[in-house]
Amino acid sequence: MIVGVEVGGLIASLYAVSKTTNEFDWSLQKIKADFFFDDKINLAKLFGEAKSSERLFGRLKQMFGKQTFSGTKAPIRLGIYSELENRFEFIGKGRLAGALRVVLSDRTLFPQADWYGAPSWSAGAHTPYPVQEARKIRRAPVIAVDVLPSSGPDSSEDAEAKQRYSKSMSRVAAASRSDLRSADIVLRPDLNGVGLFDFEKRGKSVFAGKAAVEARLSEIQEALRASAAEKGEE
Description:
By secondary structure, the protein is an alpha/beta fold. It has two domains: about 1-125, no CATH class; about 140-234, no CATH class. The protein has ten helices and seven strands. Strands 1, 2, 3, 4 and 5 form a five-stranded mixed β-sheet that branches. Strands 6-7 form a two-stranded parallel sheet. A hairpin with a 2-residue loop joins strand 4 (about 115) and strand 5 (about 120). The radius of gyration is 18 Å and the shape is globular. The model is unreliable at about 150-160 (pLDDT under 50).
């Protein structure tokens, strides 16, 4: 099973609906700044107020159409923060486009969204590493991917607004990294020089992700074999 929060949920969904690796890679290339926002990013204005999510929802509907959770090639769950329940929860029913509108509703960037009538937000600032939550829904090794910044913004992100947002994400990561200790394997792609808003460097990010997997591939395979043996599977 694949689980994800915020942009990780978008990437997970793209993988889950792609028929081939090439299709997945091609889909990733479509994720640019204009996928999310109407105009060229102006962070000083962007963080002043929540922007309309109409463009984002329109792009999600174009990308995923009427695809539902039940129709993916791999089971997937997406994490959101339910304001009504005041807690993190996984969702796994309905259409992916509507679910991802909620999954990507970062409080700083987009307005709140409803999920089956319940006001909800992105879980990124609440539970960025849902390791324990993932264990509750599937008894299998948990392989986590850590891409949140561990320190301040890189030198390319010199705008004051970008610095504020990057530092905020760094604080979230630092406060939540203890959750990663219970993961069986943690992959940390080398994203040195790739800022949070460097959409034009998505190719480098993809390559770094693949390299991180390849470096631990034997370990991943062994963990999966051990889990299958424990459950009596071949």
